[in-house]
């Protein structure tokens, strides 16, 4: 009934179904990695034609929230190492392909958000957050220092030991242990100079040129999950991204 009222107000039927599916994903009704019901059942559940249902699902597949597997069905996306490399990791050795980095935890502490992190995460400046400094090595060379900030309430109970001993990526940890699935990220790039606290782990001189990547990662409801600033030594590495039309 509610859906019919929304249709009457002019919202396209597939958009209503898409929004409902996103709500179901965000609530955990369809957990990461699980399969969606058959299209016929979903169409009946939402009171729309199979064509309308497919248009909604197609849109979510295009956005990376769902994955179609031929002969098996449609599944909720989940973070694995390959997905992490393709969507969220863009630093490669110059002229080469992506390589999965290794990591080393440099700092893990609880503190107040401060102005910028509060703005990026939609928090108060005095909100408690976890501040994490992480070193990424590519082929054993220190290349990136990540400064990561997440809401301490959203990630209640997170510990340095848990973060450091995670079996997969950081986004896999968010998803598996805290039910926080990153579905998209926005990035801004700029040049900067290496501070002393970043030059030392990168084994470079202070004031050396670095690439700075400022990223906000978002969840299903387009809510900010993580604020990250990456400092990249590009003397032997570069930013690489493939764009599909």
Please give a structural write-up:
The chain is an alpha+beta fold. It folds into 2 domains: 75 residues, Arc Repressor Mutant, subunit A (Orthogonal Bundle), CATH 1.10.10.10; 159 residues, Chorismate lyase, CATH 3.40.1410.10. It is built from 9 helices and 10 strands. A 6-stranded antiparallel β-sheet has the order 4-5-6-9-8-7. α2 crosses α4.
Helix fraction? 25-40%
CATH H-level superfamily title of the largest domain:
Chorismate lyase-like
Q: What class do helices, strands and sheet pairing give?
A: alpha+beta
Largest sheet: 6 strands, antiparallel
**Percent of residues in beta strands?**
25-35%
Topology order in helix (H) and strand (E) letters: HHHHEEHEEHEEHHEHEEE
* Helical segment count: 9
Features:
single chain; 245 residues; Arc Repressor Mutant, subunit A; Chorismate lyase; six-stranded antiparallel β-sheet; two-stranded antiparallel ribbon; 10 strands; globular; disordered N terminus
Summarize the structure.
The chain is of the alpha+beta class.
Indicate the topology.
Elements: H1 2-8, H2 13-27, H3 39-46, H4 50-62, E1 66-69, E2 73-76, H5 81-88, E3 91-93, E4 102-112, H6 114-121, E5 128-138, E6 141-151, H7 160-164, H8 170-178, E7 184-193, H9 196-202, E8 209-218, E9 224-232, E10 237-239
Antiparallel strand pairs: 1-2, 3-10, 4-5, 5-6, 6-9, 7-8, 8-9
Helix pairs in contact: 2-4, 3-4
């Amino acid at each position: 009934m509610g859906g019919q009222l929304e249709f009457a107000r002019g919202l396209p039927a597939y958009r209503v179904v898409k929004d409902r599916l996103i709500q179901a994903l965000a609530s955990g009704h369809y957990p990461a990695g699980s399969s969606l019901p058959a299209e016929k059942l979903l169409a009946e559940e939402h009171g729309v034609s199979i064509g309308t249902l497919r248009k909604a699902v197609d849109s979510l597949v295009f956005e990376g929230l769902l994955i179609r597997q031929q002969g098996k069905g449609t599944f909720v996306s989940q973070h694995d190492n390959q997905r992490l490399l393709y969507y969220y990791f863009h630093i490669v050795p110059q002229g080469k392909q992506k390589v999965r980095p290794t990591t080393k935890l440099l700092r893990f502490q609880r503190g107040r958000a401060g102005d910028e992190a509060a703005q990026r995460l939609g928090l108060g400046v005095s909100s408690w957050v976890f501040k994490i400094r992480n070193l990424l090595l590519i082929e054993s060379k220190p290349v990136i220092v990540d400064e990561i900030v997440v809401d301490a309430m959203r990630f209640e109970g997170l510990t340095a030991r848990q973060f450091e001993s995670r079996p997969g990526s950081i986004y896999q940890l968010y998803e598996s242990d805290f039910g926080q699935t990153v579905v998209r990220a926005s990035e801004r790039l700029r040049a900067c100079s290496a501070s002393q606290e970043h030059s030392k782990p990168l084994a470079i001189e202070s004031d050396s040129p670095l690439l700075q990547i400022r990223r906000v990662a978002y969840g299903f409801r387009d809510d900010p999950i993580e604020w990250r600033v990456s400092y990249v030594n590009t003397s032997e590495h570069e930013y690489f991204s493939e764009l599909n039309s």
